[in-house]
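Q: I have 196 residues here and want to know how they pack in 3D. Can you give me a structure?
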Amino acid sequence: DGMQFPALCRVAVTLGTEVYGTPEAIKLPSQIVEGLRLDGQLIGRIYIAYTEKQDFINEESALIGGIGRRVTDYIANRRLLERVQATVEGLQTVAEVGTAITTQQDTRQLLQNVVDLTKTKFNFYHAHIYLYDELRDAMVLSAGAGEIGRQMVSESRQIALSAPRSLVARAARERRSLVVANVKADPGFFPLPLLP
């Protein structure tokens, strides 16, 4: 039902760069190793080792295979749960923003509520809203999250719609959302001195 020599048995599990259990099991010469695969990718390993030279029997190999499947299923379920929780939190944030939009009559306060909620609920380092000013042919900063955002709004910041180095201007010109994973690496990034 278990290992032949449980007193000599050491177990370690690696998951990414983390090691759980008894790390010496990874280095012991008498061991069975079971890979943990998720969606075809190796995400970790289970090491079951003896501190003394012992031969493993078929039942022990079958045992570690079963453990590996259960651990992989557990990890898959945890990741799915985390994704579902993130989706639910995102939907709750959208609902809060929607509520703010329908209950707030003052446009300036509405925009401020939206950027503050967006920054806080999605854990962004910053959020701001630019509105197009047709007379200036520019995007005018109308709301910014937190004190830094309010300071930037008070400075009447604006970006010309034709500005070549501006993700904001590019999104406005193309009339679409832009998702940029690393803005500093994008050629259209224009750094703002008050933001990290």
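Q: Anything worth noting?
A: The beta strands are 9-15, 18-21, 30-38, 41-50, 128-133, 138-144, 158-160. The chain is about 40% helix and 25% strand.
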